[in-house]
Amino acid sequence: MTVEQTPIDSLTELEAAEELGLLTRELARHDELYHGQDKPEISDADYDALKRRAEEIENRFPALVGENSPSKKVGAAPSGAFQQITHAKPMLSLDNTFSDDDVRDFVHSVYRFLGQLPDNQIAFTAEPKIDGLSMSLRYEKGKLVTAATRGDGTTGENVTANIRTISEIPQALSGDVPDVVEVRGEVYMARSDFQALNAEMAAQGKQLYVNPRNTASGSLRQLDAKITASRKLRFFAYAWGDMSAMPSDTQLGMVEAFREWGFPVNPLMKRLDSIEALIEHYHAIEHARADLDYDIDGVVYKVDRLDLQGRLGFRSRSPRWATAHKFPAEQAFTRLTGIDIQVGRTGALTPVARLVPITVGGVVVTNATLHNEDYIRGIGQSGQPLREGRDIRVGDQVIVQRAGDVIPQIIDVVLDARPETSVPYSFPTTCPVCGSHAVRDVNEKTGKVDSVRRCTGGFVCRAQAVEHLKHFVSRNAYDIEGLGTKQVDFFFESDDPSLMIRTAADIFTLEARQSASMTKLENIDGFGRVSVRKLYDAINSRRSIALHRFIFALGIRHVGETTAKLLARSYGSYENFAASMTAAGSFHGDAWNELNAIDGIGEVVARAIVEFYTEPRNLGVLGELLKEVTPEPAEAPVVSDSPVAGKTVVFTGTLVRMTRDEAKAMAERLGAKVAGSVSKKTDLLVAGPGAGSKLVKAAELGVETTDEDGWFTLIGA
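The structure assignment produced for this chain is given below.
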């Protein structure tokens, strides 16, 4: 989709909600491709632009922030090929900055959150951001016991056997170390080692690897540790998770302890005490970047004092005390040879540019997303010109940009090099897959035309139906081993009633239909008796599944994995969830209000969920599916001994002893859920001076109310 240049201030809340929904879905897809499959489709610069636009919309319209928001998402779910390890403490990602002014804003935000400090000075560390694979290493009694990838931030892949083959990672720690040590850092491949590996591959006549980052990630994810051992991987330590004792009270001190224990640490890390010093060090690293033997894509800044890090706390997916200052993108020129149209699960027609292969930043790129037809025509979301109104045509010489992996962004065309025979691109008005009309929806309230053209074929359209099935069996949903992309395509295309899979329920009736058929799957090329048995076992093992996975698997628009988890926790069981969504069908009343009161569920997401449950066709598919599977009740959240653990808290009015952000972070650390509005399910309202409608509503509903001093007394602070 397009990263629009429309000023955020000019968007209405409804327009902002629509754009944020598109951005959320697009970013979730790219997260899975990058973190889960090591197969990114867009450059880092393109991804960062999408993400930044989403965060700017959220900052302008905080009521639109949902639990599936890009600002709350970390990585992707771990692969089913490895055993899983639950991180003792979540492995979160970092927010990004892109300019010197952004860095100043970050530092100022730290001061604003903490309030005035006695010395009015906060020191920060600055270190290169390694372009590799995040890793968590757990040591007990000084011995390495487990190693796990980041995964989705909560659960990662167990790659202990492979990590043991990396010589730079100690098997046992030297010196006096705590009983439990969890060191985190980055596994990477040096440029020189990557070049040597490709030279070896070329000598053997084998396909060359694309870049060091993907090669390192792929090498570490080998099921055979001998393959990992044959690739020279390296490691930098820079963070920690679970620790039974802290060897230092500063960030720099912790990293120095890692070095003393035997870990490699980056020699370019410094402690600095001013904004200008941070920026100066950033540019020094940027200038030295080409001479380093490892890839970096920016510089990471962190508050040095750990007590201040603790006060600043975390957002849902990132710490408030750190940010990554990204390097600018690289550009090159090439020729656009064609435009293909892909049809997605929601019917969206996405144009993809085919390019004459070009090397940008050491990587050969051949294609790029063109977002939508308006982007091709040089028109922005609100009708403003893009690229000064220049359209994109087949045959054009184009300027492409990348700052990370594979597919770049087309940022402009060279009109002087345009062929005389070129013609404007005509975007199809019918689906290239099923021939149904492809239309751009019009918002009934605003009259605004959607930037995305969608196929109207629904489940009639093979592309949409197949993509729904692929989503259903995907890693974050049902994760059925042996039912991948090729297998879904095969079963969907089959005309044999005993083999055909057109809906999710058909997956679970496959074995029964096959047992009564003369056509046996095990006799078909590509299958066999053992693989078929494994497939049936994998299917049957998913007849009972976690509630959040079931909700996510339904493919409801705007409902990502994080939102599905939030809904599961909020409603507890599928019966409660479905009944509430049905009761909310009129878009008013208690059920509707309770759905909207969930912190992180905005009206756009709520409406999409309820509309899903008011569509008869969806209910029919659901009914058949529920005959075959059972969604398990959600697990109760872990409750601490805090008096507010498990309770829903709302803050309103002016807070004096803490900022609103610090109050929310404090409540969440104590195990409370923080809501944005008052409802029947609110347990406590903390009201400061100037409290208005929320205080009135709390009184009407009989919700317990306290002031800021009462809050501190309650939590014993």
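Interim note for the steering committee: Residues 545-632 form a domain with the DNA polymerase; domain 1 fold (CATH 1.10.150.20). DSSP finds 24 helices and 24 strands in the chain.
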